[in-house]
């Protein structure tokens, strides 16, 4: 008698991991309400609102001057490792990844068109959080024994709040390692392997191997090498993607009004029934928009502060503006372009066995939905592949490649901080640890490329929260310092330092 095959460990983990993810983001367990509000969503938006009000809406009012600062940001204006613009490009290369293509599609699939409205709201509050992170990253930086400046949430916790908060910095670093290996690596590797498979028919394991080798070539040179590549690739890839999305929307201009109506209707109505979406509760739209918004722009998560900390500037306020600009470009510009193409472009799609007009109504999920919408906008083929599919796939590969570079550095900084808490840590020991981490990072790319993605996406929501919670607590505690930094007080707040026998020699 034939026996059914036992489910794999991954399959068995999907249900408990989904429950933990839903509890954190929605307040449910096994589909039943446990808490009457979405915990992580309330915390993220609540602290974002607090800082936005305390900044007197500075991120919105100063957006124009932030864009003007892009040009000045190409020049060194103080101590650091890379130019302020390169720091922004590095942060953006970590932000702009699979979340901008597959993540937006997932948000729409989970929460309907209304999820996009909540993604926008997350980005606006996220700009306040990003300003706080970027400015604190410059205000509080540690110096190694050989003179290298570096920082991030672990540093502004230690220097801004004092040694008694070391536990919070450690928790943040553990969350960062978790998030780096799941969202910064496995999800990205999985997406780029799928893109290479769709474009060139390359086996996923081979695609993972190719990407791992290319990533290693860049990250072997550390943050200066990563910043150099990001500064050249990120502006080009973002501009090309936005340009192609704009053309797709111009070709379907007549349907744009209906798209915006769907977004606003779905954000405030229990069911976004128009357009064929069956039953997205407001809370689900809210959760999907906020969770995927955080996944994409990382505001409040603390990751981008690690990149901004190495900028060659001594002005916390100017780098804070750079940081908030990253959130605006990532979500308000790039994610919105993806969402509008998915919701607006008409094509020959199938949903539930019936013919439907748009990709978001179809059976397509994730990146397949985004790629399908672009293919419908640009159906002409090149070597048998629709131009639209080619555009979306190349964008995905470039976006994901640069994300893999930057998140390797974030993970490296987290593991270095934990090592520096050990007695006898040295600069040479750090450098050996960095090399071991970079090899491990590329090995995980190879492994992650061929893994099923459902479990990894859910783990991603948990790992993002594990990283964001300690950082959000630190931002709330240091919010008074942030408000002073926004007024141009470069040395606002206390500085807690003490001589240590380990690296860095002064904290």
UniProtKB/TrEMBL annotation:
Organism domain of life: Bacteria
Keywords attached to this entry: Cell inner membrane, Cell membrane, Membrane, Symport, Transmembrane, Transmembrane helix, Transport
Transmembrane segments annotated in the record for this chain: 40-61, 82-110, 116-138, 165-185, 205-226, 233-254, 260-286, 322-345, 387-411, 432-450, 462-483
Cell compartment(s), UniProt: Cell inner membrane; Cell membrane
Bilayer topology: Multi-pass membrane protein
Family: Belongs to the alanine or glycine:cation symporter (AGCS) (TC 2.A.25) family.
PANTHER family in the cross-refs: AGSS FAMILY TRANSPORTER, SODIUM-ALANINE (PTHR30330), TRANSCRIPTIONAL REGULATOR, LRP FAMILY (PTHR30330:SF3)
Name by which UniProt lists this protein: Alanine:cation symporter family protein
Organism (species): Qipengyuania psychrotolerans
């Amino acid at each position: 008698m034939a026996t059914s095959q036992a489910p794999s460990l991954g399959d068995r983990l999907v249900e408990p991991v989904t429950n933990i993810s839903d509890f954190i983001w929605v307040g449910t367990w096994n589909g039943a309400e446990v808490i009457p509000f979405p915990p992580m969503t309330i915390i993220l938006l609540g602290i974002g609102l607090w800082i936005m009000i305390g900044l007197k809406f500075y991120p919105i009012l100063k957006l124009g001057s932030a864009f003007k600062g892009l040009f000045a940001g190409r020049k060194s204006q103080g101590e650091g490792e890379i130019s302020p613009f390169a720091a922004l490009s590095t942060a953006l290369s970590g932000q702009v990844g699979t979340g901008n293509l597959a993540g937006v599609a997932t948000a729409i699939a989970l929460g309907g068109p209304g999820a996009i409205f909540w993604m926008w709201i997350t980005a606006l509050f996220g700009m306040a959080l990003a300003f706080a992170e970027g400015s604190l990253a410059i205000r509080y930086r540690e110096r190694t024994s050989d003179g290298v400046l570096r920082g991030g949430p672990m540093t502004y916790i230690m220097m801004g709040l004092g040694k008694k908060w070391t536990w919070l910095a450690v928790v943040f670093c553990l969350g960062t390692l978790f998030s780096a290996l799941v969202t910064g690596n496995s999800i990205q590797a999985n997406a780029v392997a799928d893109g290479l498979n769709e474009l060139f028919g390359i086996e996923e394991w081979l695609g993972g191997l190719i990407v791992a080798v290319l990533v290693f070539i860049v990250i072997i040179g550390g943050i200066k090498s990563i910043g150099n590549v990001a500064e050249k690739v990120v502006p080009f890839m973002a501009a090309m993607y936005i340009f192609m999305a704009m053309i797709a929307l111009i070709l379907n201009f007549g349907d744009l009004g209906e798209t915006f109506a769907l977004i606003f209707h779905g954000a405030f109505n229990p069911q976004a029934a128009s357009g064929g979406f069956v039953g997205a509760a407001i809370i689900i739209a809210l959760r999907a928009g906020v969770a995927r918004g955080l996944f994409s722009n990382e505001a409040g998560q603390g990751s981008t502060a690690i990149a901004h900390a190495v900028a060659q500037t001594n002005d916390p306020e100017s780098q804070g503006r750079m940081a908030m600009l990253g959130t605006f470009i990532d979500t308000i510009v790039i994610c919105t372009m993806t969402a509008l193409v998915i919701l607006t472009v008409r094509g020959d799609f199938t949903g539930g066995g019936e013919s439907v007009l748009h990709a978001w109504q179809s059976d397509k999920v994730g990146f397949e939905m985004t790629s399908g919408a672009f293919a419908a906008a640009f159906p002409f083929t090149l070597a048998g592949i629709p131009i639209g599919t080619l555009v979306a796939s190349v964008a995905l590969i470039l976006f994901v490649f640069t994300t893999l570079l930057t998140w390797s550095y974030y993970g490296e900084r987290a593991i270095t901080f934990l090592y520096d808490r050990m007695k006898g840590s040295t600069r040479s020991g750090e450098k050996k640890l960095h090399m071991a981490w970079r090899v491990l990072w590329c090995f995980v790319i190879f492994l992650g490329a061929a893994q099923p993605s459902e479990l990894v996406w859910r783990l991603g929501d948990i790992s993002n929260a594990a990283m964001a919670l300690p950082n959000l607590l630190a931002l709330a505690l240091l919010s008074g310092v942030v408000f002073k930094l926004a007024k141009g007080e470069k040395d606002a707040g206390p500085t807690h330092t003490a001589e240590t026998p380990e690296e860095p020699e002064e904290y």
